Amino acid sequence: MKIAIAGKGGVGKTTLSGVMARYLAEEGYTVLAIDADPDANLASALGFPPELIEGLTPLAAMTPLVEERTGAVKGTFGGVFKLNPKVADIPDTYSVDHHGVKLLILGNIPQAEGGCFCPENVLLKGLLHHILVGRKEIVIIDMEAGLEHLTRGSTKHVDAFIIVVEPGQRSIATAHQILRLAQDLGVQRVYGVGNKVNSPEDRTLITEGLSAISFLGHLSFNQKVIEADKRGMSPYDLNGTLKKEVQGIIKRLQQLQGEALD
Length: 262
Ligand SMILES: Nc1ncnc2c1ncn2[C@@H]1O[C@H](COP(=O)(O)OP(=O)(O)OP(=O)(O)O)[C@@H](O)[C@H]1O
Ligand SMILES: [Mg+2]
Hints:
Rossmann fold; 8-stranded mixed β-sheet; binds adenosine-5'-triphosphate; binds magnesium ion
């Protein structure tokens, strides 16, 4: 199963990605977590120790790799490069394993007006396409808001596109924009997850604000999640409630998909 997680900035995408990945790994699944946010911090939410995080390099910043695979030489803007670089070995070679979760950090793509047609972009898009189409394990992608890495060709392989929403009109409005963007890209199954929910009223605010999509469940507002973030720990390791809530979300996802996760 391939799961992409999107939503407004700060809504809890990384928290949900991290906790889902950890839960599924603990359940015995093989999990590949992809940090597709330029401001990468999924490693910390997964509980990677700081020494390990320090040593992580995002793929887009691995200049020799980008050059080797695309044939492009950095700094030579407008040069010729391969549009179909070899990527199949990258997930196993460049991911880092901890607590049974393999993590791959995509990194920052240089921004250019009208979208970037640059080697890093071609490599990462090709890689993500390969991961969605060709990999057999559970894949969880912590997306950035613009869905920059997704292409029409790869989106049909996303089994569950989860939009995280917090109780508030701004996050609901962004969720609507993301929903439209996802639909334009041909994403089939879009679901919602409420986060930082304090009350039944919060749940209603979220589900009624986004009545077009099915909700998999909600995560409560939880002081322990903030504490984990402050301590650079995974919220999964600090909180039993969160674990139960994520378990419910995954069960609901299985029911809606009508199939096993792998
Ligand atoms: N259920 C929760 N209860 C309390 N705080 C939470 C909860 N979920 C997330 N947070 C806090 O909200 C902040 C943002 O969470 P997180 O980094 O997961 O969001 P994000 O959507 O990935 O953000 P960004 O857009 O910056 O990548 C963090 O400080 C996190 O600890
Ligand atoms: Mg994040």
